[in-house]
Structures are given as C-alpha cells and as structure tokens.
Structures
1.
Amino acid sequence: MAKEEAPLHFIEHIVEDDLKAGYKQEELKFRFPPEPNGYLHIGHASSICLNFGLGERYKAPVNLRFDDTNPTKEEQEFVDAIKRDIEWLGFEWAEECYASDYFQQLYDWAVQLIKDGKAYVDSQTSILIAEQKGTPNEPGIESPFRNRPVEESLALFEKMKNGEVKEGEHVLRAKIDMASGNMLMRDPVMYRVVNKAHHRTGSNWKIYPMYDWAHGQSDYLEQVSHSLCTLEFLPHRELYDWFLDQLYDDKKLRPKQREFARRNLSHTVVSKRKLAKLVEEGVVTGWDDPRMPTISGLRRRGYTPDSIRNFADSIGVGKRENMIDVSHLEFNVREDLNKKAPRIMAVLDPVKVVITNYPEGKEEWLEAENNQEDESAGYREVPFSRELYIEKEDFREEANRKFFRLKIGKEVRLKNAYIIKAESCTKDSEGNITEIQCTYDPESKSGSGTEASQRKVKGTLHWVSVPHAVPAEVRLYDRLFTVPAPDGDKEKDFMEFLNPNSLQIVRAAAEPSVKDLKEGDNVQFQRLGYFVIDKESSPEAVIFNRTVPLRDSWAKLKD
Ligand code: ATP
Ligand code: MG
C-alpha cells in the first residue's frame, strides 16, 4: 500500500484535529529526544519512524534533541552512535539540539520560579523527601523548608550552582501540591547537585535539571508542536503542563505532550540499561554485536534500513503496549533482501565430490544469474571442475524416496551446472563420509538447450569448486534469549534466560566472487539464507555473519 493510502494512526488524527482547530501546518514541528546513555535499539526505531514519518507527511521539521541532563551516564560516544544510526536509517533532522544548551535559560527560569514563590530549596535528604511523598491514597507531608524565605532559597540555589554544597545536601523543588492525586505533582525535584563533568558543558555546571524540568522547556524553546513520548510518561503530562503554565508566553506556540505505546520485541530486551549490562558483562562483544537488538547490531547483522523502516511501519503506532514476535522483524529483512541481495554459492559444512568422468585439470566458467528477482542484477561466472564441495547433509548413501538430494545411484542437478549421479563413497575408520564419487552427464549443462539439460531431476544442490574455493568464517547467530519475554519474569533476572548457543562459528567454502565483497555487502547463500560481510572481514580472511536463514526454523520447531 502506498504511504498516502495507509489509514491515519491515532497520533496523525491528533495532528489533523489540531489543524482543524486552528494550528497552521507551518507551525508543526516534532523531535526525537534520545538520552545519550547507550545505543539506539529497535524500540527507538519505532519512535524515530513515528516522528520523522510525521515530519515527512506534514513537511514539518524534526529536531534531533539530545536529552543530556545526567552526566553520570552520558557520553560523546553515544551521541556519535545515535547520529550515525539515524542517518543510516535514512532520516534527516532539521536541527541538532542539546538540552544542555538550555542550562542557562533553565536556570534563569528556575530563579524566576523561586522569586514567584513556585519553587524552594529543600535541605532534607533524598530518603526523607521520598518518605514524605505519601502514597497514592494518602497525602504527602510538607517539607519543613517548603516555606523558607525566598531570599534564603535564592542564596542556597546560588551556592548549589557554584559548587559550594555537596551532592544530596540540597535540592530545588517545585512548590505544587503535596496532596495531589498525582504523586509527580507532590513538589517534584527540579535540580540536584552532581559533581561530574558533562560531555559538553565540562565542569561549568554543578547542578543538573531533572527530566521533567528540562524536557517540556526544551520543547518550548525549540517550539516543538507535538512532543511524543511513550506511555509511561502519561502521568508526567500534568507536570509538563504545570511547568509550561509558569513560563508560557501566549505569543508563542505551546507544545503538547502526547503518548504512544512502547514497542517490545520478543526474545530480546529493549532497554539501554539492560543492553549495557550485556556489554559490560561480556555476554556480547559490544553494542554492535550482531545479536544485539540495537540499530548498529542489526546493521552489522545485515539488516537494511528499509527492512527496519518497513518493520516499524507495519507494526504501526499503538495505544497499548504489546510484544512483537522477532519473526516479524526477520520476515521484513527476508522480504527486502530477497529483492536486493545477489545470490552466490557457499557450502557451510563441506564434503568433497569427485566427478570421475570429468577430465583432470579442466575448468569451466559457467554463467550464473545473480538474482532471479531482479533482472538488472545480471550474471556472473562460477568455476566448475572435477572436485567440488557440497553440503554433507545433501548426501546419503541410502535414503527414502522423499530425500530429493544426492544418494547412490540417483541423479541431482548442480545449480547452474550439470546433472550428476552418485556412484560410490569413501569413509574414514569411524564411518564418516570423506569423499563421494560421481559421474556427470556432459550434455546436461544448465541453459545449454539440449534435451539432457531439460531433463527433470528432483533435487538441485549448491556447490563450490574445490581448487577455486575461498575459505570463509561464517558466524551463525541465533536468538540471544531462549524465551519470548526474558524481562517479563518478576522472580528471575533476564540474564538467566540467555541462549548459550546464540553463536556458532563454522568454516565454509565459498565461490571466488566473495573476494570482491566489502563490509556490509549482503548476499544470499543459495538454499541457506542471507549473509553479510562483517567489519572484521578482509580479502585474506573473509568473515560472514548470517542475517537470517531462508526459512524461519523456529516456526518449524513449533509445528
Ligand atoms: P531505554 O529504557 O532503552 O533507555 P528510554 O525511553 O529511556 O529507553 P530515550 O533515549 O529516553 O530512551 O528514548 C528516546 C525516545 O525513544 C523517547 O521518546 C522514548 O519514549 C522512545 N522509546 C524508547 N524506547 C522505546 C520503545 N521500546 N518503543 C517505542 N519508543 C521508544
Ligand atoms: Mg531513559
């Protein structure tokens, strides 16, 4: 379905209603606001596609705003990775913004709130403050410092700013309502002292604003019209609005917060904190490990930007949280790579075939179609010779009639080549097959038009010529967790559900054209799946990552 024809999702309905109610289209503005405390994951991709999708639909700017208000967890490395990932997905932000650029303005506004009697410095410990919060059914207790003189709060706030007080000694709180039914309205903390250099502002600031104080004001400063966040922020909306009420100038556009459901993916965790734990504990090799649900992990795994965008669009924007099965993501990458990935032949678990009636020393370069789904992909040549590799599992000495692969006395076609017949095989002392002797029909060359070439044989096998084979390391990845919701169990830690077999490394034999592939090039290994050249690969030591097998092997297990 073309994008224009897709039904509007509920956020688009909100925007449409606002346009009807008097918003001008040129006033629309959106933002994507990551905290640079980790790499973006597939859940963020939903939020990115939502915000940038609105930007495209309404021809409105979309800012990239780093919500960098907590120097204890944030780093430049994460800022760089986030920008790289959004660009790779194919989106362009209007302005690159940082909440830290607004620190002075936020501070000035906070001083104004103190002067207006809307904020005060509390000198209690955070434990005591938490105890006084009350419960949803009981009002909280007002701090003894709540009504301290404005001058005193101003002086203490100044000291906090100048680094003259220790962490936790004082905080600045909004003076709202300790009996509010919304716990977040019970005098929320606006500022705390943090003695840590910030990746952008260095040691200029000793106080840092809390999320609620920074976020809405940043939206307001950037004149974002619709500030979209995930559902857990629904109770924050009242506070978002309260803060705006204190400073809103009615000549300006007033941003509104609206919420949508977080997207969760099965068999993984989509939380930067949990993903960071996998990295820190060495369960994976890094944020871009191909098993990670991060954008950079998916990229290294061989996912394309289109496959991720199509996935995000297909699951849509929802009002209720749900879990999307990872097979749906895999479906999208298969669909995309089926159209785009050139086909090649590689054998993952090789056994040697000798064609006894093929002349020794002879080689032929046979024409092979690069992608039957895409005529423009053209042809390449693959070498054929007397000795070939096929997959071990494609041969059996004896097998029933349903085994359409190679068995003694029966014929199969070698893809793009000849029909061969197995005559005998050699085994080692343990009974493992070490070599298969075959004969070939010289008249049966694929595409030659001869009668023999058109003979119907049941099976077609992929193969690689032994003397031309390029050895390759192939990394076969599987799901990182064995259960659909590793973090859904209250009793157990998500780390207990790690799949011990999420990586298997095999030595494969590939056709020589793989030498021309570069990092990130996607291919289909015929009959096996989609693979991509890893960043650690070199022409001397080729390394592939398996993106996904051709078929969903987990679905088969369930049958
Ligand atoms: P995490 O828990 O992984 O750190 P977060 O929500 O704290 O996620 P932010 O960097 O604050 O991460 O998120 C940036 C934006 O992405 C926010 O608007 C957030 O609501 C959205 N987002 C994060 N996770 C998801 C998800 N799983 N599905 C949809 N949107 C998400
Ligand atoms: Mg967060």
2.
Amino acid sequence: MNIIFLGPPGAGKGTQSKLLEDQYGLVQISTGDMLRAEVARGSAIGQEAKSLMDAGKLVSDALIIAMLKGRIGQDDCQNGFILDGFPRTLAQAEALDEMLKADGKSIDVVLFLDVDEDILADRISGRFTCANCGRTYNEVSNPPRVAGKCDACGSHEFTRRADDKRETVVERLKEYRKLTAPILPFYEKTGRLHSINGMLPTAEVTAEIKAALGEIPKITQK
Ligand code: AP5
C-alpha cells in the first residue's frame, strides 16, 4: 500500500503519517525531514535548499524528485510507504507516477487533510518536536502527557523549526495555494483522492483516515 498525504502546512500530515507508520508498518517519507537532515549535515543539497526553506519557498522539482527517487528505491520501502510533503507540484506528481510505473507500482490512495487556513498559523507556531525521536507536539492541542518529557522515547529535549515563524508561514501558505493545491484534481480524476476533515481532534482524524483506508493487512516486517 502506497499512500500520499496532501494538505497545507500545519494540516497534520506529519502527525497522522507517523501514527499510520506505527499502526500499519508502512515507512513514512517526509521530504521536509529529509531536507532538514541535509541542511543539518551541511551537504550540497542542504546548502541549495536552506535559503528557500527559510523563505517559505519550495525547493526545485529536479532536486526533490531525484532525492525522492533514491529514497523509495530503498529496501525498507518495498512493502509500502507514506509520502508526507511530496508531491508538491504537478511536475512532481507526474514524475512520481512515472517512477512507480517503471517498477510496476502505483499510488493506492491520496489522503487530503482539509483544514481552514485561519487555524494553520496557530497550529504551526505552537508546534515543537522531540529532538531524539521526532514525535510532534503542540502547546495547546497536543502537549506531552508529562510536561517536558516525550511520550514516545522519554527524551527531555525538544526543537522548533526555523520556518515556523508567522511571516514564513504566510509565504508557505502562498506557495501551497499557487503550486500544491492545483494538483488535487490530478488525483481526483483517477478516483484516488479522499478528503479528510483535518479540523477534528487528532484521534478523530485518524479514525476518518482508517475508515477511508478500509482493512489493510498489517505488514509486520518493514
Ligand atoms: P514540510 O516539512 O513538508 O512542511 P509543510 O508541508 O509545510 O508541513 P508541516 O510539516 O508544517 O505540517 P504538517 O501538515 O506535517 O503538520 P503537523 O502534523 O506537524 O516542508 C518544509 C519545507 O521543505 C517546504 O516549505 C519546502 O521549502 C521544502 N519541501 C519539502 N518538501 C518539498 C517538496 N516536495 N517540493 C519542494 N519543496 C519541498 O501538525 C502541525 C501542528 O498541529 C503540530 O503541533 C500538531 O501537534 C498539531 N496538530 C496536528 N493535527 C492536529 C489536529 N487534528 N488538531 C489540533 N492540532 C493538530
């Protein structure tokens, strides 16, 4: 089963794909996380991406398609994956279909997390992430069970993203409206698009997603 999460910044793509990864044994592939790792390493990709990410702009299709192609070719993706943050443009969506077709594979379902724009900035500015395992929290809607301690791994260290400043979020939303929202019809016309109400509490969003996915046999080996 290969899944795509689509939705604006802060819609809950990372939160929900991490939950599905655990429950269905699929591999989450977050292009944003991959780029942030490249930036942290100071690699050539990271250097090219950093200023664009800091400005809330998308990185080039050529760079991101090459990066994604390398990732989904790896062994751990062969049982299925969840794409979080890819595709973001029509060119990326078309390239993805082509690269999967060449391997006799396809995207089974596209989950669009529908959230009103006016709550996204608040969600994003309240976001923080465990520095050890990457679990995402929110100051208001989703704090750790014990303040200052990660529910998943117990770490006490948390980070905030450089592009989560309000002015950058405005730019990210503009990029979403201009370049990413127009790919929804691409998936709608092939019957793969399911719209999910992303305004509900996290557990209810997960329940809607599971209903959309139906019964998928749990894959025990990644
Ligand atoms: P990326 O890292 O992909 O960021 P994004 O798409 O902007 O999405 P976010 O990670 O901000 O939000 P999310 O939907 O995952 O929400 P989350 O679950 O964290 O991309 C960053 C940058 O990298 C881009 O700007 C671009 O420069 C570059 N890039 C990446 N991929 C690219 C590509 N394919 N092409 C070109 N450039 C690319 O939730 C947000 C907050 O809300 C959290 O605090 C969470 O706890 C909370 N929350 C979640 N669900 C709920 C709920 N149901 N109710 C209440 N609160 C909730």
